[in-house]
Amino acid sequence: MMKVVFKLQPLDDKMKQKVMKRVCGLPGIDSIAVDMNNNKLTVIGENFDPVSIVEKLRKLCFTEIVSVGPAKEPEKKKEEAKKEKPKKADDNKKKDEPKKDEVAELINPFPCSTGLHEKGLGLTASESMGMTSTSESKDELTSAISGHFEVQSERVQGADTTSLAPKAVLMASTSGSEDESTSAMSVDFNVMLGDCKVMLDDIEVQSERAQAVDTTSLAPEDVMMTSTSGSKDEPTSAVSGHFEVHRERVKASDTSLSSGYSPASSSEIVEEDVVPFPPQISAPPAHESEIQIVSMEERERMPSIHKLESEIVPSQTEGEGKMKRGLNASARQSVKLAAKAGIELGKSNLVAVEPVRSSHLTIKNEIPVEDQFLREPVLYAKKSIKTTVRKIFSHINNVRTTQIAVIGTGGIGKTTVLKALINFPNTKHVFDLVILVTVSRYWSTRKVQNEVLRQLSLCREYSETDYQVAEKLLKVLKGKKFLLLLDDVWEQIDLEAVGIPGPSLENGCKIVIASRKIDACHDMNLFKVVEVKSISWKEARELFYEQVSTSIPLSDIKSFAETIVKGCGGLPLLIIVTGRALGGKNDVSVWKDASKKFSLPKTSRECQIEDLLQLLKFSFDQLSDNDVKSCFLHFALFPEDQEVNIYKFIEYCIQEGLITGAQADAHKRGHYIVDVVVHASLLQVTEGGDSIKMHDLIRDLALGILSSMPKDSQFLLRAEGIQNLLSAYSGSVELLNAGSSSSSRSLNILESSRLCIPKGNQFLSRVGAGLTEPPPTEEWKQAKMMFLSDNELCTLPEKPNCPELLILFLQRNRSLRVIPPSFFDCMTSLQVLNLSETRIKSLPKTLFKLRNLLMLIICDCKRLFMLPSEVGSLVCLEVLDLRGTKIKELPDKIGELAFLRRLEVSFYGSIDDSEYARLPRHLISSGIISQLGNLDMLSIVLYPGDERWHEDVKYVKTEISKLKKLRFLCFHFPDVKHVQEFLRESEPWKKKLLTEFKFVVGRDVKSISSQVPDYLEFDYNQLGRCLRFVNGEKKPEEVLQILARSNAFYLDNHIDIESLSSFGVSHINGLKFCIISECPKIETVVRVDEDTDAIFPLLETLSIHHLWNLTGIWEGILPEGSFAWLRILSLYGCPKLEYILRSSRIHYLCNLEELVIEDCRGIEQIIVEEETINSDSVALPSLKKLTLHYLPGLVNIWRGPWPLFEHISIYCCPNLRKIGMDSRFKDVIIKAERSWWDALEWENDELRLHLESFSTIIFQDYL
Length: 1263
Description:
Layout: E1 2-8, H1 13-24, E2 29-35, E3 40-45, H2 50-57, E4 63-70, H3 78-81, H4 91-96, H5 100-107, H6 114-118, H7 125-128, E5 129-133, H8 138-144, E6 169-174, H9 179-207, E7 223-228, H10 235-239, H11 296-311, H12 317-322, H13 328-332, E8 343-345, E9 350-352, H14 382-396, E10 403-407, H15 414-423, H16 427-430, E11 433-438, H17 445-455, H18 466-477, E12 482-489, H19 495-498, E13 510-515, E14 527-531, H20 537-547, H21 554-567, H22 572-582, H23 588-598, H24 609-621, H25 626-635, E15 644-645, H26 646-655, H27 663-679, E16 684-685, E17 691-693, H28 696-707, H29 720-725, H30 742-752, E18 763-765, H31 777-782, E19 785-787, E20 807-809, E21 832-834, E22 855-857, E23 879-887, E24 902-907, H32 913-917, E25 937-941, H33 948-960, E26 968-973, H34 976-985, H35 987-990, E27 996-1001, H36 1014-1021, E28 1025-1030, H37 1037-1045, E29 1048-1052, H38 1065-1068, E30 1073-1077, E31 1084-1087, E32 1101-1105, E33 1112-1115, E34 1128-1132, E35 1141-1142, E36 1154-1158, E37 1167-1168, E38 1185-1189, E39 1207-1211, E40 1229-1232, H39 1234-1239, H40 1245-1254, ...
Parallel strand pairs: 5-6, 6-7, 10-13, 10-14, 11-12, 12-13, 18-19, 19-20, 20-21, 21-22, 22-23, 23-24, 24-25, 25-26, 26-27, 27-28, 28-29, 29-30, 30-32, 31-33, 32-34, 34-36, 35-37, 36-38, 38-39, 39-40, 40-41
Antiparallel strand pairs: 1-3, 1-4, 2-3, 8-9, 15-17, 16-17
Helix pairs in contact: 8-9, 9-14, 14-15, 17-18, 20-22, 21-23, 22-24, 24-28, 24-30, 25-27, 26-27, 33-34
């Protein structure tokens, strides 16, 4: 064991929580403690890396290692070392029999509190216990006895406990030999302790029913337990532990009994007597006379215990913390450290169990000992979990039991139980190694082997076969006493083929499997079965209300809420998900509708999985935004149980078009979506906090939604789930029940399309699985949907037989160059095909035999130069996406696609004269577009300066003017006169039905290097109504007409415009995004000559590039409200600009978040101070990001304190010697040159050390 002490910065409670959360999840750590007074963190454990802890914590606060050394064993307290010597009554007994107090302490290490004596429940050492054993010495007896009783007091209403005096417990054990009897007694006694703990939990459940019990006449007799072993040759006979429990039946005519209880005999596991669910509408109230003894030391600890119980949860807490929810379940649990008197009331008998003594208790990690193994995100149903774990552990302690099956329906909490078993205090002492593997429905030997290898810190060599890996694992695990936990098992597993040694009496290994089905076990005779049962009515109610936060009075929704809880059937996952879905719902009608759904027949514990999915879908229906639903469903495309990095998942959703907007905004939206879905408990944050995963039952829900088909629909695209999956193209497919809210139509959907889980390989999802080879051909045969995107596939099967395949995703397999000629021969049912971002050069002719194909997506295939004329045979095609390809011309057969609704194409061009001469004469032939009368979306992207378009546009613009269903148009008008005809003739434009457009007006040319960065043009194109006016002059009326409807404007190389105000305030005030580039006459962006309305009241981004005569952003007195929503201001290459703002005008930019200034050589100050201002006030308080590059004249940024930046980048500003940062700054990312940073003038060295300690500084000598 190693002990490492770290020095931290002064901590507050919030920072302490973060530190504990970061450290507790690291492997090899047994205990952590924070000393708030001395600002020290102590970590004890084995095989952990102190340096990695420092690296993790330095992201939060300053951290350094103080000392490293071996952990010392805690010294025994003097009062514990003093043992009361028994009287010398019998010398022989002194040799053979341990001291009574020592035996009592071994079983019950916590002395009785004085509070128990005061209440008449205490007992003296002589009363506590008598025990005889043939063991030779105290040491042998110590090893033979393990565990202690953990007894909790029950709530007893009106109970007179003065006459309760537990008698002695006598235990005798005899065996034929010394050594074997000692080990047998150890196992035997452990089994007994496990059984007793299970019995006590059952007693606790039963005693909750007792109300107003008069116990004055109850006097329990001795509880005698005897264990005998025949001979040393039969040590295992003692293991069975034949215990005789003698109870006196007490007549209690004045005692009201609620139910009976019959304890199991022998050493069989006592199954929990589940309270009928629900026994009543309201749970029995707690009584004031509840017995709870807590020492003064423990009372002082309690606030930190509550906090840490929330801190130490690794998985879901981070996602939930972002939603500002916290763990209400942990916060509301009362930490009970005192002993409780366990009282079991039967029809005609009573057992009184000796209370555990507890005058003091050392709390590891400040968590109660009995709760240390409960570290799940939601600490629901603690009693139920602990009871199940103890049942499992009692089987583990039985040497004859080697395999245990944990059985329960989906969502019942099997995974939670297995994780609690890992954290159970005794588990790590019994086994050398604990391995947890999630097997999943579609498992393989290799998958299980890889996970075991990972947990053993081993790896698979590239050339190793499964058989070789199995031999390797057998060698590693041989001789080790391991506990193997297999979660989510669906069928029998050949562990020998995996490389797992079989458990036996000799090696002491155990295997625990968790499954929904009992037939997942090889031989039921080899397994002890532990059933995970539904939680009690009381626990269910408490768990549900912990999830709900609403302003509705409880009385208004109580009856609905309890109907919903009853409908959840005691399934924790369903209770949590439903509670989260209703959280914040302040409309009573929503609760009423939900109660109707949950009262439909019949959703009990025995409900079928399909019934459960119908109820879980309620949570999906409550997701208000379509992009949230789409992202949730897309997560189900990743392999089962895969942990997906949050950032990569957001990138994936952006690439799929599920999340739109400017890059920064899209990522913010992505994080918000992840937070929403995590808060809804539809996704879980993993232990590290940077990845997410999906519960297998929630995945079944998502697959059920994707697979469900409306009764009256023959095409897949009409299904609700598929529309969410293909939401990037939702504008081109008919929406199901369009216009109705999810909450109002949820019941209709529930009744019209029943959810079911796709069977076998019908739904094959391998997104991002790292595949280098396609799935086996037998998996293709049953598949209806195959998602193989984001892999490394370089080949495909020659002729896969998949007649039922409907959807095939192959996008972003960037190593895929060729599609086999016969690949599509047996895919006659295919409706959706995505080949985007592959390296294919051509499309096989068999593709064009897919008569049922509805969507063909070939985006960004940059090596694809030709679309075959056979495309016209795809008579059902609705979507054809050719963006980012190098198509040289559109084939005339396109005109035969009568059902085509969405056409997007990018044309190839060239500036090389010889190559240009070899290109086709026309991009689009005359009369083609006019045949596509169903088009609602048309996008034509040209190579800048392609002269062929100047001829084609003359008839193409006439044809698009006649498309009456057009809702989106991307088009280039080389001359203003072409715009005039379109505006005059187009019905969608005149009736304002053209809701989205991207127009380029003017003669565009190909520039070798664009002055505007690509990311900025990308952000510009994310807006819905964009106008780029290029190489123009004056202010054409047609341009003003389009500008008035636009929300994004790109003014590029205008010859004579002097200010944007020249276009008229009324025409520019609807803009949200504006780029101005290379306009030589502009001196100021806005000029206010007279009283006018607010200017740019909606503008969010203003980017200015290479305005050589620009001297200021605005001139004159701005009306209030001008630039009110400006968030991003960037200026590049404006040499005559001397400053950005004056101090008297900075209030206009109160919402500015990012300021970028590059290559403006004349700038000396960012903000010019015109008048004395409050030195304590912060200029631009919302500013988070500051970039200053190539500003040789910059001397000062501004006087006064800076806002709390998150990111600062300063490069090539040699005359800037001072910065306005102070001790408030923490967690800032600073990019700068090392020489510049070292040359800065500081008020004191402490400030520099503070910034270097608490910020991330990246030194770079070039950009």
